[in-house]
Amino acid sequence: MHSHFLLEPPAEPLPVFADTDPIDRVHLFRMTLGDRRLQAEVLDLFDQQIAILVARMDTAPPAAMATLAHTLKGSARGVGAWGVVRAAEAIEAAVAAGTDLADPLAMMARAGAAVHGAIASMRQSEAGQGGGL
To answer: Under CATH, what is the fold of the domain 26-127?
Structure first.
């Protein structure tokens, strides 16, 4: 058994329907074993993480930007935020190639805003149903 699999599982392909919803709810359900409280907790943490790390990217040097993007990519894979995954990969690729970061950063800002809106909507929906998200 290779020990690197314990640290980072192999990347799974992004689903075809990734653009229809900022959070892949089926993936999130599977990752949390259907536990609604865990889903709420994970999404709250991810929402905070996006806000903090994207804000740090604005002033970070390129190498640090790539590290922050890599961190977000791992978290985004966990919740099924495929738009954030793609944006993080674009930032990593731009840093590696030494190209302009304006478009990948704008892509991340859009993806982060979409996820933030989706999480807020999910919270509102759950609150209306007497649940907790």
So the answer is: Four Helix Bundle (Hemerythrin (Met), subunit A) (1.20.120)
